[in-house]
Write a structure and sequence with these properties.
With 487 residues, this protein is mostly helical. 67% of the residues lie in helices and 0% in strands. Helix 2 crosses helix 3, helix 4 crosses helix 9 and helix 19 runs antiparallel to helix 20. The N terminus is likely disordered.
Length: 487
């Protein structure tokens, strides 16, 4: 009865006999086999999708940063500096995360995303009129003056002799136009003249400096390969907000300084010391910060490099010597404005005096102490035994950081000089603190509710001191680790 009952139920579903049931079972088995085959075919596809996931993530980070670059100026003007700083710090954090993501992607694919994303990030600020700094207008003006056959060191922009060169786009935006002659050295002046031959405008100057930044990225990738580091580390430099804002946005001449210093360093790592010295010498007369490369490149008791520096300096100054003593421009005025002679411009000295009271001859004592520290480092670096690429980059980083920590500059773009260290020294915290924290020094929106400059400046440099202490402790710990392993 059970069998009949079962057979009856099967009949209701169209299964009239056992053969039909067997046929269904076979078909079911075939279907399962086909599903297994499909699953096996999907396996490689799933693996490929998982492999592409970091690339998609990196591309999404790039898209977020492009959007950040697009909205940041309006956010700054409408909401204020604190909201803008919050966005900048998140931006820098995403650039740090991007280093980790890019390292997991094949280099060719990662570099395509990194460099493409970097180009897109710069577009919004390329077309944005500069509002954080007006230095770029002086660059265009100096190029224009030279293009009209006039020595740029002879007159301040407001001088009657230059009245015929004034316009409504450049001249009204020049800072210190009525009392300060140009401060920029001859290599910078030649560059300004060259770029303005292609266009007498802010946009032309920005594009010219972006071309040098592209050269800097190429040299940085070359150095990373010399150090056997992932070339994708360049993302830390390319996507950091300081490089985007200070080059695409403000077009500071420091972009060219960084480019020449990186090219010089790359050439030196390929054992072409004299050629590296020639490039560094040109950089010195673009901005003197490049002097810090000289101890790195110098070989003990070899006087070719110092002689080369003097010869190149003489050749660069020669076309401008008709200005006489004015050829040094606004240098003395700048030193006075920044209170470098009196010591008021050095944040650590000011912090100390806030506790102890005014220190007699404090500025002089600070300058002497800083000079002795830098001279001691320079001598030790110049006479170093280890000339390996890793050691060369390491001592370059040490000297640059020591200089900036002691100088405590008041302008964020000075920290562009160490922006490549974000990629070259990935273990170091100090470059990230200085390069990112430099944005604290900006306060350009009228009526903006920001903490006093002294508070922001002090916070930056105290944090940098803590980071430098950590980096020193970490370096010592890593040095001791191999010795313990060998004992």
């Amino acid at each position: 009865m059970v069998s009949c009952s079962a057979r009856g139920r099967r009949t209701r579903y169209g299964l009239k006999n056992g053969a039909r049931l067997g046929e269904v079972r076979v078909r079911g088995a075939n279907m399962l086999d086909r599903m297994r085959e499909i699953a096996r075919g999907l396996g490689p596809l799933h693996a490929r999708c998982r492999a592409k996931q970091p690339q998609v993530t990196l591309a999404l980070v790039a898209l977020l940063l492009v959007l950040a670059a697009a909205v940041a100026p309006a956010l700054h003007r409408s909401v204020g500096g604190m909201a803008w700083l919050g966005l900048i710090f998140v931006w820098a954090g995403l650039a740090y995360v991007a280093v980790r993501i890019a390292a997991t992607i094949p280099a060719r694919a990662a570099l395509a995303i990194v460099l493409g994303g970097a180009a897109l990030m710069r577009l919004p600020l390329l077309i944005e009129p500069p509002y954080l700094s007006s230095d770029m207008y002086r660059y265009v003006w100096d190029g224009r003056v030279q293009g009209n056959g006039i020595n740029p060191y002879l007159h301040v922009p407001a001088a009657p002799a230059l009245a015929h060169l004034r316009d409504t786009a450049i001249y009204p935006n020049i800072n210190r136009a009525d009392y300060a002659p140009t401060i920029y050295p001859p290599a910078a002046q030649m560059l300004f003249w060259l770029i303005t031959r292609f266009g007498d405008s802010v946009l032309a100057m920005k594009l010219g400096f972006l071309a040098f930044e592209a050269l800097a990225m190429a040299a940085l990738i070359g150095i990373l390969r010399q150090l056997s580091l992932p070339p994708t580390h360049v993302v830390a430099f390319a996507w950091h907000p300081l490089t985007v804002w200070e080059i695409a946005g403000n077009a500071h001449v420091d972009a060219v300084l960084v480019s020449l210093m990186l090219v010089s360093l790359l050439v030196a790592l390929r054992d072409q010391t004299l050629a590296a010295g020639a490039i560094a010498s040109v950089a010195v007369f673009l901005k003197p910060t490049a002097l810090l490369l000289m101890p790195v490149l110098w070989r003990p008791w070899n006087w070719k490099l110092p002689l080369l520096l003097v010869v190149i300096g003489g050749a660069l100054y020669a076309p401008y010597l008709g200005a006489g003593q004015k050829v040094f421009g606004f240098l003395s005025g700048y030193v006075a404005e920044e209170e470098l002679g009196s010591g008021g411009g050095f944040r650590y000295l000011k912090l100390l005096e806030s506790v102890t009271g005014t220190i007699p001859h404090g500025g002089t004592l600070y300058l002497v102490a800083a000079a002795l520290i830098l001279a001691g480092l320079a001598l030790r670096i110049g006479f170093r035994a280890d000339r390996s690429p890793a050691a060369t980059v390491r001592v370059t980083a040490l000297l640059l950081i020591a200089f900036l920590v002691l100088l405590t500059p008041h302008y964020p773009w000075y920290y562009l000089a160490i922006a490549p260290l974000l990629a070259l020294q990935p273990r170091m915290l100090t470059p990230w603190v200085l390069v990112t924290g430099g944005f604290l020094l900006y306060d350009v929106i009228a009526g903006d509710r920001m903490a006093p400059f002294a508070v922001r400046d002090g916070a930056l440099h105290l944090t940098a001191s803590a980071a430098l202490t950590y980096d020193y402790w970490n370096a010592r710990r890593l040095e001791r680790a191999p010795s313990k392993a060998n004992s």
